[in-house]
Amino acid sequence: MLVYVLSKNGKPLMPTTPANARLLLKQGKAKAVQ
Are 8 and 33 in contact (CB under 8 A)? Predict the structure, then answer.
């Protein structure tokens, strides 16, 4: 499964793994994309 996220400044960090996405979101370095 791949997760779609954007960095704080809107650059795509996708696709990434759920574990990496969770880390980035927790650290405030990314936001989830619906």
Answer: no
